[in-house]
Amino acid sequence: MSNEIKHDLIVAVVNQGYSNELITAARGAGAYGGTVISARGMTHDGPVKFFGLSLQEDKEIILILAEKEQKLPVMQKVSLDFGISTQAEGIVFSLPVDALAARSPLAASAASCAL
């Protein structure tokens, strides 16, 4: 069994309302799909105050499990279309996945990952 990392978790954080478009773009770059989690953005001082009201920007966190070879094209597409300088104001980063256990087509290619 090889301990070589074969998958990465791509994490994108964007303004609310962009997750469907982001996943469609990521699929076009080779991803299978993703998981969307609703979140709230906060500054280092907590929620932003406006006329005494607490305002928190709604965000979406998109998790995409990708094979190592797919990581760079997917991240480049997401960054280009949904990056910090777009209306989505997104950031994207990846984390290595050293183990994977699932029952899906993706899991078949990951069968050699150590648990």
In short:
The chain has helices spanning 19-28, 68-82, 105-109; strands at 7-15, 35-41, 48-50, 53-55, 57-67, 91-97. Strand 3 (48-50) and strand 4 form a beta hairpin.
What CATH architecture would you give? 2-Layer Sandwich
What percentage of residues falls in helices of 4 or more residues? 25-40%
Number of domains: 1
Strand runs, count: 6
Query: Would you tell me which CATH topology applies?
Result: Alpha-Beta Plaits
Characterise the protein shown here.
With 115 residues, this protein is α+β, with helices and mostly antiparallel strands. The chain has a single domain (9-98), classed as Alpha-Beta Plaits (2-Layer Sandwich), CATH 3.30.70. 26% of the residues lie in helices and 35% in strands. The strands form two sheets. It has a four-stranded antiparallel sheet, covered by helices on one side. It has a two-stranded antiparallel sheet with strand order 3-4. A hairpin with a 2-residue loop joins β3 and β4 (53-55). α1 crosses α2. The radius of gyration is 16 Å and the shape is elongated.
Keywords:
alpha+beta, 3 helices, disordered C terminus
What topology does this entry show?
Layout: E1 7-15, H1 19-28, E2 35-41, E3 48-50, E4 53-55, E5 57-67, H2 68-82, E6 91-97, H3 105-109
Antiparallel strand pairs: 1-5, 1-6, 2-5, 3-4
